[in-house]
## 1
Amino acid sequence: MEYTTLGRTGLKVSVAGLGCGGPSRLGLRDASDSTDHAVALIKQALDLGVNFLDTAETYGTESVIGKAIKGMAREKLVISTKKTLTPPGHPNPEEEVRVGLEQSLKQLDTDYIDIYHLHGVEPNDFDHAKKRLMPAMRRLKEQGKIRFIGVTEAFVEDPQHRMLQDSLKEDIWDVVMAGFSLLNPSARKTVFPLTRQKRAGMLNMFAVRRGLSQPQRLKAMVAELINTGAIARGAVNLDDPLDFVLRDSGAATLPEAAYRFCRHEPGVDVVLTGTGNPAHLQENIAAILKPALPRPVLDKLAELFGKLDHLTGN
Ligand SMILES: NC(=O)c1ccc[n+]([C@@H]2O[C@H](COP(=O)([O-])OP(=O)(O)OC[C@H]3O[C@@H](n4cnc5c(N)ncnc54)[C@H](OP(=O)(O)O)[C@@H]3O)[C@@H](O)[C@H]2O)c1
């Protein structure tokens, strides 16, 4: 594993982080799925050198992390979890944050959280988050219950990163989580210059998602781009639109190429990988440690997707 410093937090984090949410939720797709499998997946990631675990109060995976890390030296781990925003009109959002944090601590079986995020903040939520929730977050930080304050964007609703662009004008986040992938690299221009300026740590979500792991979804997405004129007809092979990526990069699979794309982007600190499959986990961590994609492949990807800022790959 390789390690890096997560912006101004100073935390030493593995460049691959285990995403315990997303479509896979460690394989816990429904209530009948085995938590033993999920615990084993977390242990596998830890054995491969991953020290960064990302979850949220809504994922249903905090307690599984608690089980997997039992007996481990807590200071060797970086745990990131998230508070869902309270709906508008809630009488006491500050108290909701405090109670949410206590529940997360209990589920995770720990007495502090390294990074506590406001989860999926949409552009219109920022004012409420800043005025009503941030004071409570700051209090938790002063009490030592959380070490750093983060925010995650609602990438599907806000693929142009409007919330991050707006909120990063201020200096309130220690860490941010943004969507970034070869299908939508727009954060490179609109977010990373700001995170660098503020020295905020940058966590990369949506590196692969469904668009880069399910060939039919990719084909449909590219067909739509051609229909709308966003990509020139004839610019790609319609049956296998990213065939050139595998052919010219030596990557064995598209997920491998997609993780390599993100890992070598200046401005990305941790690439999150989400899976319920132990073989995928092994491949993905190996991919994150492989070299950058060759320049001609990056150039062709930039030609196809470099100006787009609406795809999420969801
Ligand atoms: N707003 C937010 O706060 C927010 C939103 C979304 C995500 N996140 C965080 O970001 C993390 C990463 O996002 P994500 O979970 O969507 O991760 P991702 O790594 O971009 O994509 C995961 C998807 O790709 C598939 N996949 C992964 N590796 C594969 C491989 N080698 N071959 C084929 N398919 C593969 C997975 O299915 P399999 O299970 O079959 O491998 C899953 O469907 C989440 O787990 C969560 O922690 C945060």
Note: The mean pLDDT is 96.
## 2
Amino acid sequence: MLAGDLDGVDGVMRLAFGTIRELPDPAAAFGDADLARTRFRAAPECAWTAELDGEVVGSVFAARWGSFGFLGPLSVRPDLWGRGIGSRLLAPVLAAFARWEVRQAGLFTFAGSLTHLGLYQKHAFWPGALTVLTVKAVEHGGETSYARYSDELDGTGALHEIRALTDLVFPGLDLSREILAAATLGLGDSILLRRDGALEGFAVCHVGAGTEAGGDACYVKFAAARPGEGASERFERLLDACEAFARTAGVARLTAGASAGRHDAYRRMLARGFRAERIGVSMWLRPEEPCLEAAGDYVVNDLR
Ligand SMILES: CC(C)(COP(=O)(O)OP(=O)(O)OC[C@H]1O[C@@H](n2cnc3c(N)ncnc32)[C@H](O)[C@@H]1OP(=O)(O)O)[C@@H](O)C(=O)NCCC(=O)NCCS
């Protein structure tokens, strides 16, 4: 993908998703949220297009989070569906996952679509747990103290601390690129929750129109509490911090993807008022390997 492809990529993506979701105006899919430009600017070498007669007719994005990779959104112009373009777009992504030597790779798709399950199963991705895309109204409340990545005096030190934490969740997991993209591309920021100097949890959040969140929203793109004894309490404090961050940003909605496979984390999110907006399913390459939605993890993310 090249920067000059982005208008075409964005238009096809909205049309494809709007069509499959049967929206009255398909081009209005994703509203004022942006998934194409944000992801391209964060990782231009992790995006590919399909062209027909020099025109963009499809695209796919991937993310490289250290030892973990995921792909999406994948989209093809609706008048060209069923001709093998989607499958061909998956080829460079699968080659990249092999080149990057990821331990695990995944994606998020429509849970009720046999077409989607079939497409991905053909490429060796197998269904995992339901992923529930949730939203919560941002409430007024007590202040929670947390640091912001962009305020850290030593950004490299903070990235190192975060990597040490994510390594406990999933060996080799590295969110550095997402953290840097949020801070440097004006997409949002990352929250660091510390106690007695130790990092207890962190969250990468996008805020507002033109980001993955969309207007009047804060989207928790990834959050993790340090595993081990007391993780559930750390997770609760981390969710408090995300809500406080959203409140400070002046947005009304906090959105987050919850894997139903992370049982206690999911239950706790529902208990504090996160409500399902949409449901999808995660799918995994090499599902026999330990994956990023283990039952005991206190992690928030979706692979949309
Ligand atoms: C999903 C999508 C990218 C697939 O692209 P595509 O170019 O149509 O995919 P392909 O032609 O490679 O088809 C892949 C498989 O899907 C199945 N399929 C595709 N269109 C189908 C249809 N209309 N009915 C039934 N099965 C269909 C086929 O089994 C095909 O496998 P085959 O090669 O063995 O026949 C495209 O439909 C799209 O853009 N959808 C909207 C956005 C979206 O849903 N993205 C994926 C979200 S995770």
Note: Residues 16-17, 20, 72, 74-76, 81-87, 109, 115-116, 118-119, 122 surround coenzyme A (CB under 6 Å).
